[in-house]
Structures are given as structure tokens and as C-alpha cells.
Amino acid sequence: SAVISQKPSRDICQRGTSLTIQCQVDSQVTMMFWYRQQPGQSLTLIATANQGSEATYESGFVIDKFPISRPNLTFSTLTVSNMSPEDSSIYLCSAGALSGNTIYFGEGSWLTVV
Amino acid sequence: KQEVTQIPAALSVPEGENLVLNCSFTDSAIYNLQWFRQDPGKGLTSLLLIQSSQREQTSGRLNASLDKSSGRSTLYIAASQPGDSATYLCAVRRPSNTGKLIFGQGTTLQVKP
Lengths: 114, 113
Hints:
The complex is a heterodimer.
Chain A: E1 4-7, E2 10-13, E3 19-25, E4 31-37, E5 43-49, E6 56-57, E7 68-72, E8 75-80, E9 89-96, E10 104-105, E11 109-113
Parallel strand pairs in A: 2-11
Antiparallel strand pairs in A: 1-3, 3-8, 4-5, 4-9, 5-6, 7-8, 9-10, 9-11
Chain B: E1 4-7, E2 10-14, E3 19-25, E4 32-38, E5 44-51, E6 56-59, E7 62-67, E8 72-77, E9 86-93, E10 101-103, E11 107-112
Parallel strand pairs in B: 2-11
Antiparallel strand pairs in B: 1-3, 3-8, 4-5, 4-9, 6-7, 7-8, 9-10, 9-11
């Protein structure tokens, strides 16, 4: 199994500012992902974090708004840029091995934009 | 396009009841299916994973089944307890094995003492 730590766990942010969320996995994993969960909704995949290269974004998400880094196998960051109240969500990091089965999730980072 | 649906959206039962949560998906070509539990404002805890070649998996009071041909999975919870109160999410993993998950909307369960 993998233990995933996210920071911050919760934050209140001002409109127009940016916040970077960190994700640390306790073991080397092949795949890392970032999901968004808007209030009362299910999870939507934002992007796949690729080690040492640009992230692969899903339809509806762009790099300028959600820049992602993954400098090594166990660490990734997601920045939510120029935040608006519509960005108020839980952002979740997930990870797993390419040949493995279970995908693990962090505790999430709950952002409220005011 | 794969779509995942969970029924019911919410469920309230008295403690001790056995219950079934349902998950359906539109494209039977999946790599595996995973059931998660989410407590309010928290992340996801993996409960059970069923590979596409498997029919069921069991862990304690939980049993998950998979009928890939009909696009259905069920999560059976035996002898429910108030501590089981949470939102239960099912997610399918695409056959290309990219690790991407497609989630249902979840079933919010309340078990009353």
C-alpha cells in the first residue's frame, strides 16, 4: 500500500491569489494524479502528473490555471492559479503503480475561496 | 464514453441491517473496479478492488461483486454499524491501464443507532 500526504489540508484563500498544494507519497509509484471534488459532487480528474515532464490535462483543465510539477517519483505539486469562488473544492492527489492494482488517495486539500 | 452511475444516491438504515449499494457502468471494457469510502471533508479510503477477471472480493463485513458483461457491481455491507456512515464511491479503471479512474456520484449512507 501507499500512504499519501497532502499539504495544506485546508485553507481559506482570497480571490485572485494562487495556492500550491503538495503531495508526498511514501513509496515510489509510477503514476500520480490530481482530482477535484466540487461541493456535493463526485471526483473529476484534472491531470496526470508526469515525472520530469509536462502534465497531461483532461478536457476542461488547462496548464495556465492548474500548473503541475512532478520532479521525482514520490512528490508532486498542484497550483490553483488566480482563484475564484468557483475553485472552492477538495483537491485530491492519488497514486499507484503501473503494474499494480489499487489506486490510493491522499486526505485531500479543502480550499475555500472568498 | 464511460459513465458510472450509483443508486441510490442516499440511504438511511437502522443499525444491524444488511444492505446493498449499486454501481453500473456503460462500457464493459474495464481494467478493474474499486470501491472507496469517503468521510465528510476527507479523502478516499480504498475498500475493495475487483479485477475485470474476478467475480467478487470480500473484506470483513464487506463483499463486492462484479458482473462485467452487464456493467454492474454491488457492494454488500453485512450487519451495518453507525461507524459505516459515509459516502461510498465506485470507480472504474480504463482498460488502457493508465491508472485514471472514472467515478460514480456516490451513495451517502447513514446507519442509525
